[in-house]
C-alpha cells in the first residue's frame, strides 16, 4: 500500500499539526523525547519523502508534540487526532448504531 503524501513546508503550529495528522493517518505513530522525533510504523509506511519532511520540520514537530504532552498533563485528557475526531463525529451522526 503506497501512501500519497503532499509536499510540506511547515510555517506554523497548525501545519505541524497537519503533518502529524497525515503521518498518523498513514499508520505512523509519532512522539518525541524532547530532542528527537520517534516514529513507529511499518517499514513501507515511512517513505523517503516522509522522512525528509520530518527531518526538514523537526523543530516545529518537536514543539508541537511537546505542547500536546503538556496539554494532556494539564487537562488529564489528550487532544483527539483528526481521524479520531472524524470517528467521533460519524458516531454522533449515526441514526442506528450497530450493536456488538
Compact summary:
52% of the residues lie in helices and 8% in strands.
* Strand order in space, largest sheet: 1-2
Count of alpha/pi helices: 4
Tally the beta strands: 2
Q: Provide the domain count.
A: 1
Largest sheet: 2 strands, antiparallel
Average pLDDT works out at 77
Order of helices and strands: HEEHHH
Radius of gyration: 15 Å
Name the assembly state: single chain
Class computed from helices, strands and strand pairing: mainly alpha
Distance between the termini: 30 Å
* Proportion of residues in helical segments: 40-55%
Question: Which spans of ≥5 residues are poorly predicted at pLDDT below 50?
Answer: 1-10
> Per DSSP, what share of the residues sits in E-state strands of 2 or more residues?
5-15%
Outline, from the CA principal axes? globular
Task: Describe the fold and architecture.
This protein has 100 residues and is mainly alpha-helical. The protein has one domain. The protein contains 4 helices and 2 strands; from the N terminus they run αββααα. It has a two-stranded antiparallel ribbon with strand order 1-2. A hairpin with a 4-residue loop joins strand 1 and strand 2 (37-40). The longest helix is centred in the middle third of the chain and has 18 residues, at 58-75. The radius of gyration is 15 Å and the shape is globular.
Task: Walk me through the topology.
Elements: H1 13-25, E1 29-32, E2 37-40, H2 48-56, H3 58-75, H4 82-93
Helix pairs in contact: 1-3
Q: What attributes does this structure have?
A:
single chain; 100 residues; mainly alpha; two-stranded antiparallel ribbon; 4 helices; 52% helix; disordered N terminus
Amino acid at each position: 500500500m503506497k501512501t500519497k503524501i503532499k509536499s510540506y513546508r511547515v510555517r506554523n503550529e497548525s501545519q505541524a499539526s497537519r503533518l502529524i495528522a497525515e503521518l498518523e493517518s498513514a499508520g505512523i505513530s509519532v512522539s518525541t523525547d524532547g530532542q528527537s522525533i520517534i516514529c513507529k510504523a511499518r517499514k513501507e509506511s515511512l517513505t523517503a519523502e516522509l522522512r525528509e519532511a520530518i527531518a526538514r520540520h523537526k523543530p516545529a514537530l518537536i514543539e508541537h508534540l511537546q505542547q500536546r504532552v503538556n496539554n494532556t498533563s494539564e487537562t488529564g485528557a489528550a487532544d483527539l487526532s483528526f481521524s479520531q475526531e472524524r470517528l467521533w463525529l460519524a458516531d454522533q451522526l449515526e441514526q442506528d448504531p450497530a450493536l456488538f
